[in-house]
What does this fold into?
Amino acid sequence: MIHELNLDDVGTAWFGDTVSMRWVLLHMIEETARHAGHMDILRELIDGATGDHNRG
It folds into this structure.
């Protein structure tokens, strides 16, 4: 589990580089934000609404 590791603990990433737990967590935040942004773009294309405003 994540809480059992220190942010400076290291391991090997899928691409072969040594990375810290800090790097992994930041990378996951970045990827989650990127993909959430992609989904928001698709939703905007479908319903025409932008931002997080309700149309009710």
In short: The two ends are 42 Å apart (CA to CA). The mean pLDDT is 88.
